[in-house]
Amino acid sequence: MLDVPLKEYIRSLDEAAPPSEKFIIAELDDSNLFVKTAKAAFVEAKVKEFTNSLHYTKPEGIAGREG
């Protein structure tokens, strides 16, 4: 199950792909897509890359502000 923004991200990947590389077979509902089995690993990797890019990690060695 996907949230709407993640589904839109996957749709944008599919739309940007050339016709021979399209992978969405059907949109089942607001939060589920049916994709080609051969492209499932690609989609999973892209989703992981995308979600990891949204996380902030505080750099080590940086002191917090003191009031």
Automatic annotation (TrEMBL):
Keyword Cell inner membrane applies: no
Pfam families assigned: Tfb5 (PF06331)
Gene Ontology biological-process annotations: nucleotide-excision repair, preincision complex assembly; transcription initiation at RNA polymerase II promoter
Annotated localization: Nucleus
CC annotations in GO: transcription factor TFIIH core complex; transcription factor TFIIH holo complex
Similarity section: Belongs to the TFB5 family.
Purpose of the protein: In NER, TFIIH acts by opening DNA around the lesion to allow the excision of the damaged oligonucleotide and its replacement by a new DNA fragment. In transcription, TFIIH has an essential role in transcription initiation. When the pre-initiation complex (PIC) has been established, TFIIH is required for promoter opening and promoter escape.
Self-association state and partner proteins as the record states: Component of the 7-subunit TFIIH core complex.
Official protein name in the record: General transcription and DNA repair factor IIH subunit TFB5
Species this chain originates from: Prototheca wickerhamii
